[in-house]
Specification:
single chain; 48% helix; four-stranded mixed sheet; alpha+beta
Amino acid sequence: MSPFKLYCFAQSGNAYRAALMLELCGLAWEARFVDYFNGETRTEAYKRDVNEMGEVPVLVDGELKLSQSGVILDYLAKKTGRFLPDDEAGRREVLRWILFDNHKFTSYFATLRFMVGLRGEGENELTAFLRTRARAAYAVADKHLQASDFLVGDRPTIADISLAGYIYYPERAGVVVEDYPALARWAGRIAALPGWKAPYELMPGHPLTLAETP
């Protein structure tokens, strides 16, 4: 069987979710570096041949091409039989946390990190707003994890892998994981899973910041 191909770059937490899932499942895959910082995803060729949305990640499995990290996680979980709960109620709960992640937990922090941690922008009303919302979302997850080791049930699922997308990046932009003890313990449990690797060890394109691009 041909290895999976993942269109990705090291700074993308969305791509990291997919790459981490491939590693945790022990699947053969190869990274196709996407030169995001020099505009590759905005080209007509990329939108035509890879992803009309102009985004990463994109997973290729033979003739099948998938985009959006939540879709990719769900596909790999069902293909491998790993990181999914056993019942329908659990699967709905996984979906609930993935939607929360995409809407709040990741979205606010990822935008803040991009502006402050990668572009080096100064503080303003927008960064303050994003940080406040990111901290609120982290607090929600932290409170939930005070009563359980993982987000859904007693073992990791793709909900955990989804929320872990931006947890391990060093550019924190003032949102510090250690400020949320239950969340920090959870992050340690995910990092202890066999096959885990940090994002800058797993995907190509690091080190690089927007300030270093032409």
